[in-house]
Amino acid sequence: MEFTPVLHAEWIKIHTLRSLLGSLAAVLLVTTAFSALAAADADGSDPLYSVFFGVSLGQIAAIAFGTTAVSAEFRGGALRLTLSAAPDRLRWFAAKAAAIALPVLAVGLLTGLVTLLVGKSVLGALGPAWGEGLRGAVGCALQLTLMALFAAGLAAVLRSGVATLSVLIPFLLIVSFVVGDLSGGVADFLPDRAGQVALHSTWDGALGPWTGLAVTALWSVAALLAGAWSLQRRDA
């Protein structure tokens, strides 16, 4: 089967599952809400991060989306049915990744723009300039998309949504902050922190806005390659 019909089939799966649509809605709502709260309490030292603070929590919903989209294939023999229609496993996994990335990217861009408008209205004169704000909106969309793909790759390796979320959510909420406090610059290269450099007005670390996103992209590519390797070598 060609790539396009496989992608179409994966897109049908995604937009017919309420849990996945709920995760996409949560990306927008959580990011905007927590960003508005942070902007209301901002001191003006880093106006861009004050506007996009909620991305650090909104990415949890993006991770849940990527995890659920892949882990659903490993329940009830669904993957066997999928591979009977699309036997090329690498082509199917590439279509699955694309079907995850495209809606997250679209929702991420919408989230970035809405968050920017809300944040600037709350901060007023203390808000970031439009050029810097639009950079943050693009960075927001890319970071959310890359984290969803990172989760998708890990879910393909672990073959369990519960196991994947049990690893990633504590990592984001606890481990990343602890490592960040203890190890200095090493934490800047963690997948959730590297991409968020693009959401800061200034940054003292080794990475810049785009190199930080590139580091997160490398983590995502590594996870997807591990997921593809696992699919090729394990029974459905």
What is the topology?
Elements: H1 3-15, H2 18-40, H3 47-52, H4 55-71, H5 78-85, H6 89-123, H7 130-158, H8 161-183, H9 191-194, H10 209-233
Amino- and carboxy-terminal Cα gap? 18 Å
Query: What structural category arises from helix and sheet content?
Result: mainly alpha
List low-confidence stretches.
none
Cα shape: elongated
Portion in helices: over 70%
Quaternary structure? single chain
- Portion in beta strands: under 5%
Number of strands: 0
| Helix-strand pattern | HHHHHHHHHH
Compute the gyration radius: what is it? 18 Å
**Largest sheet descriptor:** none
Report the average pLDDT across residues: 92
Number of helices: 10
Describe this structure in words.
This protein has 236 residues and is mainly alpha-helical. Helix content is 78%, strand content 0%. It is built from ten helices and no strands.
What tags apply to this protein structure?
about 240 residues; mainly alpha; 10 helices; elongated
